[in-house]
Fold this protein.
Amino acid sequence: MPRFAMTAATLLAILAGGPALAGDAADRAAILAGYAERAAADDPAFTGFSAARGEELFRTRWAGGDARTPSCTACHTNDPRAQGRNAKTGRPIEPVAVSVEPDRFTDIDEVEKQFRRDCDAVLGRPCTPREKGDYIAFMQEQ
Ligand code: HEC
């Protein structure tokens, strides 16, 4: 686990008054805490992630990326609980909703790799730490 994630997990445990989270939920919370630190560094007015903004990121048809993938839904479908399909390769993609796949967004290397690839394909630019946190906040509620 990268150091920032460990620090964030520790901080979170302290704030929560004890080790309230375990396993996948703790790993996801640590990733979110890491993004929150970076979002706050980017913007001192940052007050927290928003599932509503995450949904907007997910559903918006962006311009600037690959024409085959104007939105996240191009591969992940309109329904995060449904199985997706890679618009470029045709390969199936497991659902991205945490309720269906509880181990979603628990491996920082995997999460960062996919944000890098997918935001570039869809937005034509990297997603910001705030956008990443918003996206995970949305998927946690799905
Ligand atoms: C070209 C198809 C494609 C598009 C478009 C796409 N994704 Fe993905 N995404 C994938 C694939 C393939 C995976 C890896 C397989 C998996 O996790 O099941 C993945 C996985 C991810 C993961 C890692 C999930 C985890 O559990 O670690 C994140 C984060 C992610 N996508 C975010 C996004 C965002 C944000 C967008 C829109 C900006 C998006 N994706 C658009 C294909 C796509």
The CA atoms of residues 64 and 141 lie 28 Å apart. The two ends are 26 Å apart (CA to CA). The chain has a mean pLDDT of 91.
